[in-house]
Amino acid sequence: MEGRYRGYAGETLLIDLGSRQVSTYPWTDLERELYLGGKIMAAKIMHDIVDPEVEPFSPENPLVVTTGPLTGSGAPSSSRFNISTLSPLTNLLTSSNCGGNFGFHLKKAGFDGVIITGKSPEPVWIEIDDGKVVFHDAGELWGKTTGETQEALPKNAGKMVIGPAGENLVLYASIVSQERVAGRAGVGAVMGSKNLKAVTARGSRRMVLYDEEKAKEIFKEWVKALRGHPLTGVQLPQLGSAGLVAPMQYNKILATRNFARGRFDEFEAVSGETLREKHLIRNKGCITCPIQCGRVVEVDGKEVKGPELETLGLLGPNLENSNLELILEWNYLLDELGMDTISAGSTVGFAMELNEKGLWDNGLAFGEVDNLADVFRQIACREGIGDLLADGTKRLSERFGGREFAIHSKGLELSAYEPRRSVGMGLGYATSNRGGCHLNGGYLVLLEGLALNIDPLTTNSKAALTILFQNIMEAVSAGGSCLFTCYLAMPAFMLEDANAWTTRWINRALTRHGHLMGAVAKMPGWMMPFHFPGLWHTQALTAVTGMKMTFGRFKEIGERGYNLERMFNAKRGVTAADDALPKRLTDDLQDPEVPGSRVPLDDLKKEYYKLRGWDFNGLPKKEKLRKLGLAGVD
Amino acid sequence: MIEVRIYGPLRERLGTGSLEVEASRAGSVGELLAVVSEVTGAASLSELRKASVFVNGTNIVDLRLFRTALLPGDEVVLLSPSGGG
Description:
Radius of gyration of chain A: 22 Å
Strand order of the largest sheet of chain A: 2-1-6-3-4-5
Number of domains of chain B: 1
CATH superfamily of chain B: Beta-grasp domain
Strand content of chain B: 15-25%
Strand content of chain A: 5-15%
Mean pLDDT of chain A: 97
Largest interface: A-B, 41 and 26 residues
Helix content of chain A: 25-40%
Radius of gyration of chain B: 12 Å
CATH class of the largest domain in chain A: Mainly Alpha
Number of domains of chain A: 3
Number of helices of chain B: 3
CATH architecture of chain B: Roll
Distance between the termini of chain B: 37 Å
Oligomer: heterodimer
CATH superfamily of the largest domain in chain A: Aldehyde Ferredoxin Oxidoreductase Protein, subunit A, domain 3
Shape of chain B: globular
Structural class of chain B: alpha+beta
């Protein structure tokens, strides 16, 4: 329903695929104030309409697609949309975020979100066109790749589609929009379980902003800041996220050989620099994004999306593969099949080690990768060994053993950062609500060697910093912005001079004053009534929506979202025992000569729970929920 | 010889990803950077001193910064700050 806040389309669609009934879902101004949009809005909807006993492939499991108020507002890097559902991989609430164009066009069509429940008896695709919803037979689209499917759908519409992997319920199947992917935790499999092949959206609605003149002024300055920053204006446009390969190698965090090591001797062959020098045709980016982090490369004579860091890492060093041409091919293939490159690479890496240790005779071996394209096709079709690989690392470890080196948390495979030399990232992986995700985990590796250089092995301040980053990134995502926009909060003067005494002093201070960081993490929102330098989101949200957004309020919205997701998962049985990493990462030293080169997870978790206001079992205390306006969600 | 490897935007700036410097010309990291600046002619010494520098895998902020001694066969890496996701 339309309310007093601008920047929102005003309506959220509710579609039942079983009965083909279409209605709107009530969403009030108070809920906009408390949950903003995106993944937090979706968490609240999931909390309100999903019974804790529902199974991920049940028709009762909704696919909740949401945007943020900045989506489509003209704010830079804000074409994002979010998909939340019960993950078949983790059996918990998941959220997967995507660039592409669907979110932008959904708002043009008049909707902030669309909730899809039920199951169609036959393959179907949904057309949302200027407020109207039409169901189409998808019989002829079923079996097509994501590219073929998008090609067959109406032009000039935003699209989200699945490929064969989603149709065949691969537990880490993705949803694709243009060349961007909602990759993680199997949202594409849930879409496939509903016999839903695609959703398109288009419309002519113009978004009304609260203070259009002020908003334009802020956007202009924001773009200027993004273009002038060392990360968003130089590194990401030049090298994309692939530019992280070399820094990860030298910081010893480049996951290699199923996370047995943090360095790969042949890393140069799969680095962002080699990608740029040998394969880059041009940059590409999402709508309204000045960063242009995407790579365009050539595969089989066709211009396609190049790999990002995670794909390079998990299909390269993690498999002991230095053949970049193969990674380009697989990246394209996996997107076409509609499958997460992170989980696919990690699962195959685990299977290689199972084979090596004699636990599963599957024919896969590190460094022997010529036939992996066939393996990926087998996974997408659930044929041969692909049928087992399609269930992911956790289930393979339950069947064949090797739990101590099964690289996942809560069932979700870890990203390409080896956390034994970045213990804050290790804590983030373990506590992330959606499982082993670097972004939902707070991405502390950014401070632990990549952009800043705080001590990567100390536990000091890591819990506090993790909480701060998790909460802020949660809010940024809910607003509709790309997480890369957060980088502006990294002071340019520190990035531009890694060796200056001021840089070294701040790096040291961040971990030497843990109590101060803890106090900041716990500080209530009303005590921070200002805009934080570099976090333009709060100024933009104020101008776009009319809410008086401050850093404190923004951080509190993120904290509310994080706690709400945690409570949802708690009802599905999550406790402190699930905030875990495999023993390889917590017990085995990465370097026997460096005593601290493991993740001291128990110590980190204790401090984390205390600062979060959670009990020893990792559950939010009633008082914490009450303060966040979440009384009753337990 | 001392092997110098360069990554990130700095590689684009200097126009090369690697070069070798005679150990006799570079007894310390500071001296090495002066040689790199002179040889490439693309960045001033003060600019190069702002990069993240690793000597045999260890960041010079954990060694003796620009006074870190170099020996024949050492590997020196210049990196730029990075972010991704």
